[in-house]
Amino acid sequence: MSNPPRKILHVDMDAFYASVEQRDDPSLRGQPVVVAWRGARSVVCAASCEARAFGVRSAMPAVRAERLCPQAVFVPPDFARYKAVSRQIREIFARHTDLIEPLSLDEAYLDVTTTHSGLPSATATAEAIRDAIREETLLTASAGVAPNKFVAKIASDWNKPDGLCVVKPQQVEAFLAPLKVGRLPGVGKVMEGKLAELGVATVNDLRTLGLAALEHRFGRWGRRLHELSFGIDDHPVTPERPTVQISAEDTFATDLPLDELEPHIRRLAQSTWQRYQHERAQPQGRIARTVVLKLKTADFQILTRSLTPAAPPGSVTELADIACELRQRVERPASTRYRLVGVGLGGFVDSDDFQLQTELFAGHE
């Protein structure tokens, strides 16, 4: 006997960073707000609905946003404030379910197959969550309800802003059929182009092409595409994943040589260390064993160098010293210029596991 379909929500805050700015500063309401630092190297963090009407989008270069919308009001991002609001929203989610998978500060998947609140349906749960967000944060959220994650994510974008879209199990195939194939997860521009060569533009075209042809052309990925075209996806909602890496990085106003990066590395090490101390304060108290230095050259090549010392770095000074020393392993001409540097910590292990390993090795000394 098969299990009943899951009930999955994807909740996505509407123009989150920009909406927080408009909420907190009444003079910005109704204005095309762009959350970004000005400058040639800055990118847009968020754009209000008014700015989006001019074609401004997240991740767009700030200079392009300014050309598209000369009257835009640029506001520098305040991530501490956005994180505080995000915590409020997570608390609202937690009233209904423990199965919460955050994707970022402003969106998350929730499995509401069963709930703490005992509401009669996933739709009622989504409406209750959106109502609470509106009342308690004075912000709006859009939500998608579906039997799996990827359909719920597509649905949450359907009636934005401040919208709700419900796709019942029996509606999934009809809902997906007319969509551009690029709406499926994992289908980027390159794959779209390859599918277009086969005459595939929509999800229905993908179904028509058939499993055999897709497997012949794309192997296992072809089988996955076939499943997605019919709305088949069994990936569960996975609550907070263990931290894999903590890092901080910065893009310079002007490109710099390697020997001028030390003050920037030490400054970024401070930011990384502060975030690491927060991680250490969590119940699991995980320990980072690997130091990572990331560089991006003026011609956009990304380089990473890492070191796992015998003992994990025990202070911000140790972290910064190791990151600075990693520059010696960058084999590039002295004339190379760098536009970005980052400092990270990785190789996380649970503190109990680390203590056990330490004791075992100590026993062999």
Structure description:
Strand 5 (100-104) and strand 6 (107-111) form a beta hairpin. Among the domains are: 16-79, 3-Layer(aba) Sandwich (MutS, DNA mismatch repair protein, domain I), CATH 3.40.1170; 177-229, Orthogonal Bundle (DNA polymerase, domain 1); 246-362, Dna Ligase, domain 1 (2-Layer Sandwich). It is built from 14 helices and 12 strands. It has helices spanning 16-24, 49-52, 62-68, 79-94, 122-137, 149-156, 172-176, 189-197, 203-209, 211-218, 220-229, 262-280, 316-325, 351-362; strands at 8-13, 33-35, 46-47, 73-75, 100-104, 107-111, 141-146, 164-166, 246-257, 290-297, 302-307, 337-346. Helix 4 (79-94) packs antiparallel against helix 5 (122-137), helix 10 (211-218) runs antiparallel to helix 11 and helix 12 (262-280) packs across helix 13 (316-325). Residues 355-365 have low confidence and may be disordered. The protein has 365 residues and is of the alpha+beta class. Helices cover 38% and strands 19% of the residues.
Question: Looking across the biggest beta sheet, what order are the strands in?
Answer: 5-6-1-7-8
| Rg, nearest Å | 24 Å
Any idea what the CATH architecture of one domain is?
2-Layer Sandwich
- Which fold does the CATH topology of one domain refer to? Dna Ligase, domain 1
Main sheet properties: 5 strands, mixed
Report the portion of residues in β strands. 15-25%
Low-confidence runs of at least 5 consecutive residues = 355-365
How many beta-strand elements? Answer: 12
What average pLDDT do the residues reach? 89
* Backbone structural class: alpha+beta
Estimate percent helicity: 25-40%
| The CATH top-level class label of one domain | Alpha Beta
Number of helices: 14
The named CATH superfamily of one domain: DNA polymerase, Y-family, little finger domain
Secondary-structure element string: EHEEHHEHEEHEHEHHHHHEHEEHEH
Global shape: globular
Distance between the termini: 56 Å
